[in-house]
Amino acid sequence: MQRVCFTLRVKPDRLAEYRESHKAVWPEMLAALSRHGWTNYSIFLREDGLLIGYLETPDFKKAVAGMQSEEVNARWQKGMVQYFEELPGGRADTSIVPLEEVFRLD
What we know:
alpha+beta, Alpha-Beta Plaits, three-stranded antiparallel beta sheet, 3 strands, globular
C-alpha cells in the first residue's frame, strides 16, 4: 500500500468557500474515489491556504489515471480550479506531486 502526501495552495480569500464545498462532496465523486483505490483520503487546510492531502492506495499512478476516466471527476475539478493559486497541471488532481516519505513508524 502506498501512502501519498501532497501539498497545494488554496487562495486565502477563498478558504471559507473551499471548506464549504467539501462539506457535501457528491456521492458519485466519493464512489469514484473508492472505486479507483483512494482510501484514507484526507485534506487538511491551514489559514494561509496551505493544503495538505493524504491518501493510501495500492498504486497511485493507477488511482490518478482511474479518476481521469471519470466524468464526475472532470465536473468536480472544473468547479475546484477557482479555489487554487497555482496549478501547474491545470487542475488540482493533475497538479499533485507526492512528497518524499522520509520516516514511517510502523
